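During the practical work, I selected for study one protein's amino acid sequence and its backbone structure tokens, as given directly below:
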Amino acid sequence: MADRSLLDRRRGVNAVGAAASATTVGALPVYLVGALSVQIGRDLDLSSAAIGTIVATFWGTSALFSVAAGRFGDLVGVRTGLGLCAVLASLSLMGTAVLGWSAWWLASTLAVAGVANAAAHPYSNMLLTQAVPTRRRGLAFGIKQAAIPLATLLAGLAVPALAVTVGWRWAFVSAAVLALLPLLMLRGVDRGRQHRRPMASRRAHRPAPLPPCCADSCASRL
């Protein structure tokens, strides 16, 4: 019983980590563009209006794909959908670093990131409701909501740490590696489910006890 409780607790912690990290990396691309707008605009000769249009592309894509992303999660499963969200966010960040040589390319990669952001919220919410006990869900959702300020914090720190020193593209490369963190957390959630399946399967195959009337009837026949 103690081992099962420990596994449930670890599974809940991994689920909170996966939800929070997926929400962070889903919103990180647009905040990076905003924080690094000076360096990006100077490098690509983009005006403030162009940067604003690129940022609007991200939020517009997120709004358009939110409902479809939720339905897709119902089809493929929450964990698969959240893993795809992390991979998509990582690809968009790496694509911004490698292919972001014009406003059109930046808008395209941010549109991909908008799809990942649209999927991150419903998938992470569903994961928390599945893996976290009811008495802990308030704390779990509070940690998950703190992911958005964390994304802005990381974007702000990228300016003095990377953009000013080695270039703004390396900030996106670093964020692309960070975007794969939810995959590691999801492995911990799946591992907790695998440990619980044998007990569940034994209970499923255990014959149900006979009602008292049937038990008395069988005993009289013997």
